[in-house]
Write a structure and sequence with these properties.
Blueprint lengths: L2 E5 L9 H5 L5 E4 L2 E4 L10 H5 L5 E5 L1
Length: about 60
């Protein structure tokens, strides 16, 4: 099963927590926001969702 991480740019405050916690290195900071540059590497562990206090991240199953 494949997963896709999505960041709501309007909600993201650029705290970098998701970048730090993601074991698959899905996220990268660009212009002060988190961007899922390796979204296809997402394992669906939801670590990023747990640390995101702004509820800016969702994970969809492909």
């Amino acid at each position: 099963m494949a997963f896709n991480a999505i960041v709501d740019e309007a909600k993201c405050v650029g705290c970098e927590e998701c970048v730090d916690v993601c074991p698959a290195e899905v996220f990268e900071m660009q212009d002060g926001k988190s961007v899922p540059v390796n979204a296809d590497e997402c394992m669906g562990c939801e670590s990023c969702i747990e640390v995101c206090e702004e509820d800016a991240i969702t994970i969809e199953e492909d």
